[in-house]
Design a protein that fits this description.
Layout (H helix, E strand, L loop, with lengths): L4 H95 L1
Length: about 100
Amino acid sequence: MFSTSADVLNLVLSLCIFVLTFFLCLAIYYFIASVHKIHKVIKRVEIGVTKAEELVGIAKDKLKNSAAYFMILGEIAKKAMEFVREKQATKDKKKNSKAK
């Protein structure tokens, strides 16, 4: 089967090349799998960031609309306080005029 030491050397070299090729292919496979997983994570993060941006946009819109309503409610409260003061003032005037 092996007539010279060169035959043994060639067999050992071919086995080493085969093993090296196998491990290189395995390493490339794991590298590609890792890159794929990283890509999935990045996609999920992008989706999360997009949803967060949408949520912030919706919150801004709601706050803008709420601010307009608060201004209207503030004006209504201001008018109501003026109305109560006027009623109180007229009530006080009536009490003062009856007391005299």
